[in-house]
Amino acid sequence: VQPIADQSQTFKQFQPKVSLRYEVSDNANLYANWGIGFKSGGFNNQGSAAIVDQAFNQFIGTDVLINDQYRKEVSSAFEAGIKGDLMGGAVTYDLAGYYTNIEDMQFFEFFVGGFGLLRVVSNIDEVEIYGAEVNLTAEIIDGWTVFGSANVTESEIKENASRPVTVGNKSPYTADYTLNFGTQLDLPMTSSLDFVARADYRITG
Asked: pTM, whole model, 2 decimals?
């Protein structure tokens, strides 16, 4: 029996961030920000690449590329929007659009065969994600607020050496839209004790 060899790797990434804000009025601000995000690379179970190649590529003729070491993920994200308040601060809002370009996007996938269950992390070479979101909060009376938010997202795989046929598809695990609604009560019981109750309802599509 051969011992499992030690593996070591260092993943680094410079992560700058720039933010700008312009005060349109006392109650509204335009803003924009851009930054680089980073997820460290890592290691799948040793032998994962060989198992997938033998059990799928060589056996049934697929062309799936799995590596024992997966690459770091780097994203360049831009967001711009407006936020402010209305009715003397009783209503606050935030409307924004965003665009993210992701290099070597990481995602989990599972393979099942005579070898059992194999979970690995794969990389998609390039993915674009863009969309818009809105958030609203209103204080109905002192201590009672209602809130809601909505988000719509489009995504596209631009390059994928592991599965070239997926180019043009949406990225995995990226929701088309999310909706969130809720309300909160925050009522003083004594000078040092508050009663707080909150309810949320969320839809992910």
From this structure: 0.82
